[in-house]
Amino acid sequence: MTNRNVLDGSMNDEPERLNRRLVYPRIVTKIRERIAAAGYQPGSLLPSENALCQELRIARNTLRRALTELKREGLLDTIPSKGWVVVAEACPQQDRYKYEGIARVFREQIQTGLLPPGAPVPSEAMLRQELGISRYTVRSALAVLEREGLLETRQGKGRYVTRRAPAEIGRPGTSNQQG
């Protein structure tokens, strides 16, 4: 039986016994090369850990160590319940969840002035109907914007765009205090 070593492409009659200290950096290099050669497109999910372990003929701990190193380098990120995703360096970060995309659209509308300070935000029911999404997704998107200080809730009246200077919008660490 001939075995192919995916790490270096060699063919041999017996499984290669690799020095454990050399495997992890070689896996990092192999995956980095695949990303650079567009084998793994930005925004795409990597194959499952199990599939990669079988393909590369390595232990899961070794693979996780390599993937964690690539995450530290900014080439990969994890999405809970989905797996490892290739980070798009040249492109804006892709939205992991639907609510993030909705929050991004509202944020852009606020930054460009399409939703001026003091403007009412459509109701949850209207957003659900217009966007065809669940109530939870709408509430999650609006909660993100409230945490960022871009929206405020007025009891019994609804949500409104806060009265903040455009230069403050989107800056990390800005509070929702009105000046």
UniProtKB/TrEMBL annotation:
<dbReference type="GO" id="GO:0045892">
    <property type="term" value="P:negative regulation of DNA-templated transcription"/>
</dbReference>
<keyword id="KW-0804">Transcription</keyword>
<feature type="domain" description="HTH gntR-type">
    <location>
        <begin position="21"/>
        <end position="89"/>
    </location>
</feature>
<keyword id="KW-0805">Transcription regulation</keyword>
<dbReference type="InterPro" id="IPR050679">
    <property type="entry name" value="Bact_HTH_transcr_reg"/>
</dbReference>
<protein>
    <recommendedName>
        <fullName>HTH gntR-type domain-containing protein</fullName>
    </recommendedName>
</protein>
<dbReference type="GO" id="GO:0003700">
    <property type="term" value="F:DNA-binding transcription factor activity"/>
</dbReference>
<dbReference type="InterPro" id="IPR000524">
    <property type="entry name" value="Tscrpt_reg_HTH_GntR"/>
</dbReference>
<feature type="domain" description="HTH gntR-type">
    <location>
        <begin position="96"/>
        <end position="164"/>
    </location>
</feature>
<dbReference type="InterPro" id="IPR036388">
    <property type="entry name" value="WH-like_DNA-bd_sf"/>
</dbReference>
<dbReference type="InterPro" id="IPR036390">
    <property type="entry name" value="WH_DNA-bd_sf"/>
</dbReference>
<keyword id="KW-0238">DNA-binding</keyword>
<dbReference type="Pfam" id="PF00392">
    <property type="entry name" value="GntR"/>
</dbReference>
<dbReference type="GO" id="GO:0003677">
    <property type="term" value="F:DNA binding"/>
</dbReference>
